[in-house]
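Researcher: Here's my situation. A collaborator sent me these components and asked whether they could plausibly form a single complex. I don't have experimental data yet, so a predicted model of the whole assembly would be a useful starting point for our discussion.
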Amino acid sequence: MNAEIIAIGSELLTPERTDTNSLWLTAQLNELGIEVTQKLIVGDDRDRLATAIAASLGRVPLLILTGGLGPTEDDVTRDAVAQALQRRLLFSQTICDEIDARFARAGRKMAEINKRQAFVVEGADKLSNPNGTAPGLWLDVPGGMLMLLPGPPREMMPMFSDLCLPLLRARVPQLAIRKRFFRVAGMGESDLDALIAPIYKPYTNPVTTILAAEGDVQIHLRARCESEEAAETLVEELGGKILATLGARVYSLNGDPLETVVGHILRDRKETLAVAESCTGGMLGARITDVPGSSAWFLGGFQVYAAEMKARLLGLDQKTLDEHGAVSEAVAKAMADSTRDRTGATYALSITGEAGPESQTPGIEPGAVWIGLATPSGVDAKMFRFFSGRNRVRKMAVQTALNLLRFRLS
Amino acid sequence: MNAEIIAIGSELLTPERTDTNSLWLTAQLNELGIEVTQKLIVGDDRDRLATAIAASLGRVPLLILTGGLGPTEDDVTRDAVAQALQRRLLFSQTICDEIDARFARAGRKMAEINKRQAFVVEGADKLSNPNGTAPGLWLDVPGGMLMLLPGPPREMMPMFSDLCLPLLRARVPQLAIRKRFFRVAGMGESDLDALIAPIYKPYTNPVTTILAAEGDVQIHLRARCESEEAAETLVEELGGKILATLGARVYSLNGDPLETVVGHILRDRKETLAVAESCTGGMLGARITDVPGSSAWFLGGFQVYAAEMKARLLGLDQKTLDEHGAVSEAVAKAMADSTRDRTGATYALSITGEAGPESQTPGIEPGAVWIGLATPSGVDAKMFRFFSGRNRVRKMAVQTALNLLRFRLS
């Protein structure tokens, strides 16, 4: 079954805020096997909203509206729904009394304006709101369902969980869901997609979603079937084919990020890592220590950003620096070697490169990065060329360094 | 003038992600006096998208589409626009050659699949993309304008700023706009708002917007008037009152972040900074070196994450560590002192704390952080207590360290 969500409120059309209720609602709906196919954000405009509601009900059997149930003139959701469905709005004395009682409990008198919240679209069922004055509404319409929920998350969420979910469960045939979450490093999204699209495209079930960040591609598979077993079989079959094709480029079978995967291997082996960072200035260490418990395997290291620090903190030979330049194989190796030596770590990663935007090193283009890795059996370094700006170059360097270590460990 | 924005991509309909490009775009459009009246998120579905585009162009004279310009089968924006406008898609050899050249510069061969990105909707003008392979498109349609922008922000933003804004400015009647952008460190959003709300609330022009991140509050003022002078007078009047109230808590009068402000002072004085990071693991150095040119004043430092590194890399006395513990005034001072000494920097900042979620140090609660500062006239350290999780504690520690240095420098 497909659903659409409309978030209502002019504040959601400013540069500072947007709808986030739909993220939580989508998670709830997906669990029921319902897919969200479209999300809309509209302001406090009755005609525009009524048009959107009518169009949406023509497309999908389930429409969820959030917001616009307050007591002010700006709150137009009830009116817009009545207009879209060509139904009347009826005053409910019961709801009015409940709102009144709610104010009384707070030692206040209900304002006249709150009576707006006691109007109900003809044929709707009230959804009680223990956390606010605005009741929600549930409407069965020809060919579908429509629910009106309040905008504040602490009112919307319990109303949906406690009242709407049971109603939905009773009406939506339930399917079993099984998922896979793989992560890949060392290849771009389009190269990866060229490889695996022929594999996953023939499958409409499982659904495959691919998400990409700097040097990191996520592959999500989700199968929905009558039985757990059938869903598991499907997700295992497609997942197996994808894994066989991608091989060692897949670093995570459960969604763990690269720093966690590397960390688990090191922790299990009781080995340790140290770093020496030039153009990344500390980003590699920052990312590693983002993981609680990383102190079990990460020792620390050196931020040798200024050229002179490579000599001063790591003891690099000034002649090596002068001869080869700071962005060079010799310096990357010496940085890793010295760091391993000075920290006593099992492994040391070094990063030295030109992050840009302009090159500070004659003959070195922005984006050129040497990454060194010192291990108990020696030291090695590789050159990479990253693109698209300082921030991305630095993130790619960090990701690539972690991936080099992963390959060494596996 | 009204505009609508459609964000395209099935990943934007998952519980994990949603459209955020539209926030930045809305800010840009508001600057031109254009209001966003509706925002839509649709998946990679050509028919659904084509229907939405046609409907939108019937409502507003300006439609912006983001995403779906990639090379895969899933990227359907070009096709959907052609379908909605009933125009043909034409292959552009020029664009194909540009994409080819981009791959060649990276030492790679263009995949066959990337040819999809060389198709242009009939009558569209190409918007060059220096930051990616997908060119954007600009279309003049009866009664309005339509632009197709790539989804990744680092491609979309420069394309909009450099190419679309000038075109829009030429077509939209302009009011004069004058702005102020202040930044405040060392106080929370609600404390700040309690202080200045009585000042800005009476003004509907300029519009005041307050945004908060970890330890950093932004104050944006925007006045729109017939003349530059009238707008400048308004923004100067309100800005002056706010500055008088906040005093030295305002660290930036032009929106520059704290690391840039501190860096400019150091650069002008020809002084330098080094760091020693324990619980932040490199975040302070990473943030500083995010600024191009920071090598003029930032030397580097030590990531002393594991306890033993404080002795091993910085030469701290094991007795001091044992007696006071790693999270202590004595250790923060010794870290800063030793770092200043070993790097030769004018100033050294040290951070040692418990980032959480669980305390590794007996008697120290998660969120407790000591920050040390060594200067030519001695060393000092202060204790802070941050809240709300590991990530926020670490970010607050970095921001607070930079702010301590700013106060010392001013």
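Model: Some features of this prediction you could bring to your collaborator: Chain B touches chain A through 86 residues (CB under 8 Å). Residues 390-409 of chain B form the longest helix (20 residues).
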